[in-house]
Amino acid sequence: MVVWILSGISLIYYLGSNIQSTFFQKYWFKFVVGFVVTLQIVSVSLLIGAILSLVIALARNSKQKIFAWPAYAYVYFFRGTPLIAQTFLIYYGAGSFRHELEAVGLWTFFREAWYCVILAFSLNTSAYQAEILRGAILNVPKGQWEGASALGLSRPVTFFKVILPQALMVALRPYGNEIILMIKGSAIASIVTIYDLMGETRRAYSRSYDFQAYIWAAVLYLLIVETLRRVWDKIEARLTRHLKR
Amino acid sequence: MNEILTLLSFGDEGWGDQIARGVLVTVSLAVVTLPFGLVLGFFIALAKNSSEPSLKLASNIYTTIFRGLPELLTLFLVFYGLQIGLQLALKLMGFEVAIEVNSFAAGVVALSVVFSSYASEAFLSAFRGIPQGQYEGGYALGLSKTQTLGLVVLPQLIRLALPALGNLWLILLKDTALVSVIGLEDLLRMSGIAARVTKEPFLFFGLACLIYLVLAMLSSTGLVRIERWSKRGDVSK
Question: B207-230: b or e for each residue (b if 16 or more CB lie within 10 Å)?
């Protein structure tokens, strides 16, 4: 404990004494820009992933094997391989199909690291989100389906108005974890030339050889993750207040 | 098709042997990290479970930090931090040498720190699953505190924590890919080199993904076996 207090104090002192330093003056704006880029990547991928995951989860739950099997393979592939390998596969691998992609006019899309990263992250998170959603949908008691069909509701209406809201309530906590995983995973974007928070940090370090670049990045990442975790706890407590006894 | 087979073959023409070596590095990194992570995680769980509030807070800070930081950033912090730290320490002792930290060692340190912070949570929830009576029974038999912990609690703890630890192992296996960024010649880096030289990036990165997938499959079958083995006492009930 003493170690933590001491290192905490020295960290604050270290950061405080460095606010006036040339490093901070020179790079603080870059860090802010990188921070925003990280948030952009994460939010865009999470949104696209959420939409995709709905389709995948439905296919995975479907009784038709033609739908269920590919969805299972998709989820297994994206959950079983490292995100960094998937990003490389899309970003560098697209080069193998340059002529084909040029023919369909998609080459401009795959040439940009930004789009590749968004694509890779969206596909990755959609697989994880699909599993969360599937588990949550299975968790809704069968009586809810039966009750809705007894009321004469069609299956799509039942799904969107009765099942999904209840499933999302259960899925709230895993979703929070997935967002945090995504924020942490987004650091990988820096390796394929994106200047997100991590990318700006690496650039600042390679120019200044000043280790405080990484310390500032660590503080910023911890700040996002901890804030998100706390906000998420509040949201969850608020949304599930009717379940409390 | 034949060209692809040549590229993947072993020997001078193909990249098979380089990639096989990469797989070996990846697997050995994960295997070396595992015991460090487990032991560290166990002690942190003990600290969290202790009645000493300062110890509890300290271990909670540890997990908050290393679960909140991106693994990649932890890796860089360790890699450059160790280098600078060691250099400073040696400078104080009067040596002026440039130190290059081995990327394998940095990978082991960073990954075990991350692994241990997750593992401590797994152990902690397993600790909660062990009834108080087990401790009391141990003390009643005249066992000391450490004996009770080692002989009575630990064997049950492992069984309870095994599913969560299995998941962590799969995550660890995937996280090893990050160490290629600091120059470790693991599976991903080897495929990257092969991709650049042969100009067949999709083939080699696709192959790397498939190998990771196979490693994950092999581990899950292994984990199922270990779990069954750990539950062998339940069958006779």
Answer: bbbebbbebbeebeeebeeeeeeb
